[in-house]
Design goal:
- 22% of the residues are buried.
- The protein is 2% helix and 52% strand.
- It has one helix at 42-45; strands at residues 6-10, 14-19, 27-29, 38-40, 51-56, 61-73, 79-88, 95-100, 107-110, 115-118, 124-132, 145-156, 163-164, 167-174.
- The longest helix has 4 residues, at 42-45.
- It is built from one helix and 14 strands, in the order E-E-E-E-H-E-E-E-E-E-E-E-E-E-E.
- The strands form three sheets. Strands 1, 5, 6, 7, 8, 10, 11, 12 and 13 form a nine-stranded mixed sheet that branches. A three-stranded mixed sheet has the order 2-14-9, with no helix packed on it.
- The protein is mostly beta strands.
Length: 175
């Protein structure tokens, strides 16, 4: 694009959350009691559901594109552009996710290393190197919560004007 700037708008990257471990507690009725009551096995009670909620979607907002290049939005919030990407909007936001479940449980969380984003005109770009700020052995805190942030590197090549969207599948399960 010689002699003019292309304003590139990347809308929020939606997060597709996949939850596993959805075992409901096993229960039995006491037949020897005067008043029937429901007895829940404590071992089964430990298998509560893992809940995932997206607090903030990953959003590169707007880029000024002069040619091929990349824009990085790290999980820490750090921003960087390379090549023909002249600017990344200050309103760009990293994704933030909250996992809830049984306090103190270790949890396994997986994100893809890359996804493809699409616009309404059929254009495609790639979100590469999706990174997160999770510890190496993630576990739910005393309140049964774990928060983490994620970002990535957006690769732009060719004419890429438009509003791009895509899903980042996240899988969370107890270990």
């Amino acid at each position: 694009m010689t002699g003019r700037f292309a304003l590139f708008c990347l809308a929020a990257v939606a997060v597709l959350a996949t939850l596993t471990v959805s075992v409901t507690p096993a229960a039995a009725q006491c037949r020897l009691c005067d008043t029937p009551e429901l007895i829940v096995d404590p071992v089964d009670k430990a298998e509560e559901r893992v809940q995932l909620s997206v607090e903030t979607m990953l959003d590169f907002d707007q880029l000024v594109v002069l040619g091929d290049g990349s824009a990085t939005l790290a999980a820490t919030g750090a921003r960087m552009t390379e090549g023909g990407i002249a600017a990344l909007s200050a309103r760009a936001m990293v994704g933030e996710v909250v996992i809830r479940g049984e306090a103190g449980r270790r949890i396994s969380i997986s994100l893809p290393s890359r996804i493809e984003l699409h616009n309404i005109e059929g254009g495609r770009i790639r979100l590469e190197s999706i990174e997160h700020d999770l510890p190496s052995q993630p576990e739910l805190d005393a309140n049964g919560e774990l928060r983490f942030r994620f970002g990535g590197r957006l690769e732009i090549s060719g004419a890429a004007e438009g509003d791009y969207r895509g899903d980042v599948p996240i899988v969370a399960e107890y270990r």
